[in-house]
Amino acid sequence: MVRELPDIVVRLLGNIPRLEPVLDLLSCLNPDPKRPRKDALKNIASQILLVATEFDLLESRGMPVQTAIAALRSQVKLFDFHVLDALSKCKDASVHQEVRELPIHSVAAGMIFAEDIRTSQGMLLAARGYEITEGFVARAREFVPGHVLEPVRVIVRSQVKAGELGEEKIIAG
Question: Does 88 lie in the same domain as 55?
Answer without folding.
Answer: yes
